[in-house]
Amino acid sequence: MTGINYAERIPNNVDLATDRTLQRALEHWQPKFLDWWRELGPNDFAGKDVYLRTAVGVDAQGWASYGYVKMPDYRWGIFLADQTPDRKIGFGDACGQPAWQQVPGEFRSQFRRLIVTQGDTEPASVEQQHLLGHTCPSLYDLRNLFQVNVEEGRHLWAMVYLLHAYFGRDGREEAEELLARHSGDADKPRILGTFNEPISDWLSFFCFTYFTDRDGKFQLKCLAESGFDPLARTCRFMLTEEAHHMFVGETGLGRVVKRTLEVMKELGTDSPELVRRAGAVDLPLLQCYLNFWFSSSLDLFGSEVSSNAATTFANGIKGRPDEGQYADHVCTDATMVIGLPDDAGSVKEESVSLRNAMNEVVREAYAKDCELGLRRWNMQIQRAGFDFRLALPALRFRRQIGAWAGVPTDPQGRPIAREAYEQGLRDWLPSEADRSFVHSLMQRVVEPGKMAAWIAPPDRGINNLAVDYGYVRLG
Ligand code: BYC
Predict the structure, then answer these.
(1) Smallest Cα–Cα separation from 48: which of 149, 118, 119, 171?
(2) Confidence band for 277, pLDDT divided at 50, 70 and 90
(3) Which of 80, 129, 171, 333 has the fewest CB atoms within 10 Å distance of its CB?
């Protein structure tokens, strides 16, 4: 089943042609998707050739081919990872029973809700990045933005396929709604908070692909464990594509740090003001951006104590990332100690059932993964001979969802007075002046191989090509 059929209107490896009703329904949705892409996808670049990768198989090796494509001609399709023969459900009350090939009726609405939430984030991110192409720091980066965008479009297809194939009329209606909600729309916003935040500069884009796409990685890993096999297989293949998005974020931020350190060395100072005057992103400013996007992305894991999370785990709907690494897959008796705010403005430790704490388990694993990049960047800073250290704020900082929502803490997670918090936010988050400074750096650079002054070139190009390759033909 690894081969993808590109002869059909909708490329797929699910034998779509054998189900005419489903095929027709998806072919009916396809032009609406294309209309949405033209309106809210990358603005103004529809006629340009972009050096993109396209999936040609679903096995981990050699799954992609590269070539110039005009984005509206990208072959969005339906690609599921190969079926694991005799796969068993790996967690929850049905642990050890055969995985489901259809949605069990009693879990239908829970599955629908998760698939819709997952699906909603994909077009949302494309909408958030609608205008970014105009201020690209290089052709290399422009191409990476577009690669991320077309693949988020494909991830939307992945969820729409599940809705159409397994949820009947409700599913078709939900698929329409995925194109009707829009990021930041006052009346019909996207479902999750972070996906309504504007991404109007490239520093935000790199933070988003570092932090928010990494939430994607963890949520997809949870769903890749699902007892509903088509969902698990879809997510497994999405994870293959997702890795590049996090690469864009990690290397993007690493290149910002590198350039800033070069400027600091040239100037012989770490003065933020002088670094800014020299046209680079000072490290305290980068720290503010990290604070903003990390704390926003933490909310995407839901509440620390969640009956939804307990139910989806118990029912075999959503597992933990890499569920196989745990010894206990049922977790009926296990507990977890969680720090919660108490009435006296302090922290109380509470032992809660592990099933109810599943969101926190995943959030903690995510935060650990986020640390890795910071360690690398701090090494760069240390090697350059500067004292500054970047740090992630605590999991409780600036939360809008869960037990810590609206509870004022400092970036170390210590509860503080509201006034001190409001005052502190001016230093901890990007201010209006910071954002306008970052916007002032966003000058478009499109000569092959050239980079904007605030970012270092990448170590290597795409698919073994040179950094100065013409990744997007703008002529
Ligand atoms: N903003 O018990 P609770 C990606 C809602 S990113 C607004 O606390 P639960 C990507 C929640 O929906 C991955 N609302 O949490 C990245 C619920 O509402 P309802 C996306 C929020 O349900 C970059 C209520 O609060 N995938 O792929 O255990 C680019 C109480 O819920 C938020 C998924 O998220 C929020 N931040 O878990 C492109 C996977 N957080 O239903 C793509 C699917 C919670 O009571 N989703 N709420 O009205 C899920 O697994 C779960 O829905 C959540 C929340 C993890 C989001």
Answers:
(1) 149
(2) very high
(3) 333
Distance 439 CA to ligand 1 centre (A): 30
The set of protein residues with a Cβ atom below 6 angstroms from ligand 1 is 113-114, 117-118, 121-122, 125, 152, 192-193, 212-213, 215-216, 219, 299-303, 306, 308-309, 318, 359, 401
Q: Which amino acid is at 83?
A: Q
Which residue, by CA, sits nearest to atom 11 of ligand 1?
Answer: 302
CA–centroid distance, residue 317 to ligand 1 (Å): 14
- Residue with CA closest to ligand 1 atom 39: 118
What is the predicted pLDDT for the residue at 2? 53
Minimal-distance CA residue to ligand 1 atom 16: 213
18: Cβ–Cβ under 8 A, 6 or more apart, which residues? none
At 62-117, the pLDDT tens digits run 688 999 999 999 999 999 999 999 999 999 999 999 999 999 999 999 999 999 99
Which atom number of ligand 1 is nearest to the Cα of residue 300? 36
Smallest CA-to-CA distance from 90 within 223, 188, 202 is with: 223
Other Cβ atoms closer than 10 A to 10: 20
Contacts of 198 by beta carbon, 8 Å cutoff, 6+ apart: 128, 184, 204
